[in-house]
Amino acid sequence: MQIAHHTISRDAPPFIIAEMSGNHNQSLERALEIVEAAAKAGAHALKLQTYTADTITLDVSEGEFFIRDDQNLWKGNSLYDLYKLASTPWEWHAPIMERARELGMICFSTPFDETAVDFLEGLNVPAYKIASFENVHLPLIRKVAATGKPMIISTGMATLAELDEAVRTAREAGCRDLILLKCTSTYPATPKNSNVATIPHMRTLFNCEVGLSDHTMGVGAAVAAVAHGATVIEKHFTLCRADGGVDSAFSLEPEELRTLVVETERAWQSLGEVRYGPGDAEKRSLVFRRSLYIAEDLAAGDLLTRENLRCVRPGLGLAPKYYDMLLGRRVNRDVKKGTPMAWELIG
């Protein structure tokens, strides 16, 4: 399948998405710097999130609308205040997308409700992402599918039944190009709870492209995901974690993103095919194998012994497997030390 001019396939390098999320810290200048840094690091796409606090939650600061969980990165905030801080102003979308295009990078977004889809259609985005927390929002999935554009869905906490329902809904509503991203909805996630072995299973079950939306630190999980067949990798991205921001704690910095791009492509290149024997690049090295060589000057009629027949490098003599068979045989001519052993030398 294609997203703009990029091919998404196991026959193409992994498609790397840098997720800006709320790392702009409410500065358009910083947002544009993030675009430039992502492009310089080699990301193929930049992704935004399109919502307002009012389209995603209610302006309530108590009960379940207030985060008290000690394990939550955003403890001490109401959902409304958190989303107000993290949201990307809609009027920023056009200049951010324009800067990405100027730098040769795709830019698209995650809509969180139907009004966001209408807005993004006006900007002619090339694809849509459904966030892991929204994969049960079937009306939103139908709305996105109806655009006919490629859709990426993060699996997050979805059960297999919920994921099947989301995929069926997307396809029945017109989605032809679908990508599922294995995702662990903890922030940050750990490699241990990433379960990238799920990736080939998803490909088999749903017959679509698969990848990883990765909230772990570093690039190890992403490289492992590519080894399991991931064709898309999404990572949160910031200029500097020390600058703070709602998602900075689990976001890559520019040099780390560059490493991600390089190492996932190397992982993809290394997959190859099931193959044994020397490859074309290895054939010149066959000479450095061990083989059988005459280790002392011999006269015609001399017996081959462990002292005068050795298994050494290089590999131009008979194979070592013939060593025991040759011991005790007589050479049929004078032979100099350093001569590769050959059948013609024995009578």
Automatic annotation (TrEMBL):
<dbReference type="InterPro" id="IPR036732">
    <property type="entry name" value="AFP_Neu5c_C_sf"/>
</dbReference>
<protein>
    <submittedName>
        <fullName>N-acetylneuraminate synthase</fullName>
    </submittedName>
</protein>
<dbReference type="InterPro" id="IPR013974">
    <property type="entry name" value="SAF"/>
</dbReference>
<dbReference type="GO" id="GO:0016051">
    <property type="term" value="P:carbohydrate biosynthetic process"/>
</dbReference>
<dbReference type="InterPro" id="IPR013132">
    <property type="entry name" value="PseI/NeuA/B-like_N"/>
</dbReference>
<dbReference type="Pfam" id="PF08666">
    <property type="entry name" value="SAF"/>
</dbReference>
<dbReference type="Pfam" id="PF03102">
    <property type="entry name" value="NeuB"/>
</dbReference>
<feature type="domain" description="AFP-like">
    <location>
        <begin position="291"/>
        <end position="347"/>
    </location>
</feature>
<dbReference type="InterPro" id="IPR006190">
    <property type="entry name" value="SAF_AFP_Neu5Ac"/>
</dbReference>
<dbReference type="GO" id="GO:0047444">
    <property type="term" value="F:N-acylneuraminate-9-phosphate synthase activity"/>
</dbReference>
<dbReference type="InterPro" id="IPR051690">
    <property type="entry name" value="PseI-like"/>
</dbReference>
<dbReference type="InterPro" id="IPR020030">
    <property type="entry name" value="Pseudaminic_synth_PseI"/>
</dbReference>
<dbReference type="InterPro" id="IPR013785">
    <property type="entry name" value="Aldolase_TIM"/>
</dbReference>
<dbReference type="InterPro" id="IPR057736">
    <property type="entry name" value="SAF_PseI/NeuA/NeuB"/>
</dbReference>
